[in-house]
Structures are given as structure tokens and as C-alpha cells.
Request: fold
Amino acid sequence: MADVDKLDSYVTGNLTESEVLENKPSRDSMMPLPVKLNLSVPAASEWIGSRRKNLKPWFQFVQTSKFQSPSSVPLLGARIVKNIDHFQSNYLCIFIILILYCLLTSPLLLFAVGTSLGACFFISRKNIDQKICLFGQELSLAQQYGLIAMVSLPLFYLAGAGSVVFWVLGASMFFIILHASFYNNESPEESFELPIQQV
Reply:
């Protein structure tokens, strides 16, 4: 019955001051982030743990006696898929190493990334104590992060972040495909069985 009275008061417009205050959106509900960006989130910790657990020994990864050219195109495709599945954590490490290499060899890009991450950290800490206001308007955390992104874009452009992203992606894909193509991860039984299955 209380719900019917509440609905009736909304339809007629007769709201008491307490009802107006109850239904007023809070500062946190205006535009919250969909997910808290925190590495203590169980899913992120679990994903990092699984990557670490699946990391293959590096001496196995670079074992030169395992490098052989594939005998056929279907064998090449199967080998690439199998190696990417088998060494995906190692390939992720290579990708991260290439990103770190680009950051360390480009001081302006390192400055841009450090400044942006520092500003995000500062804002997240500042929002714990009080909300930030700009021109009399209170900004949500998502709006503040968006403002940092807009201010950072020209700095990233000047630092050449676009070319770095494409270089890292291209170099990673080249290295991964090259390694996955030539690394023979098959047991001797599988290498004898594959040509028979293709006939």
C-alpha cells in the first residue's frame, strides 16, 4: 500500500521535503566508473596468477634445437596455434618488455605517461577526502579521468605515442609469428601422425 501512495504522490506532484531528499541522486551515483580500477580485484589477481603459472621456462622458449621449418602450410597453421596457446605468457612478457623498451628510450613519452598516471593517482587520493569542483560544478571521478585524458592527448601526440603503439604491436606480432612458426613443439609421434592425417 505504501508503494501505491508513493506512486500516487509522484503522479500528482505532491511530494514532501523528506521524499525529495530521499530520492535525490547522491554525488557518487551521478556517473560512477563501471569497475573500480584496482589490482586487488580478485579477477585481475587471478588472471595475473594464471599468467605467471603458465609461464614456460625461458631456456625451453629459446631452445635452438627445436627450431625447424614447417613441412607444409596446414602444419604451419597448426603449429602457430599450438605455440601461441603453449607460450602465451612468454609472448605477453615479450610484449611488456617491448613496451618498457619504448618508454625507456623515449624520455618525452616516459614523462607523458608518468604525468598522466601521477595525475590519476593524485585525483583518486584527493576524491577520498573531498570532491573536486570546477567552475562551481562538482565533477565525478569518471569526469575527472576524462579531463586528464583530454589534457594528456596533446602531450601523447607530441611524444609520438601513436607511432610507438604501432611499432610495439608490429614488432610483437612479427616476433610472435616468427617464433610460433619455426618452434617445433610437437612430440616425434605427432610429427609422424600429421602428414598421414592430411592425406
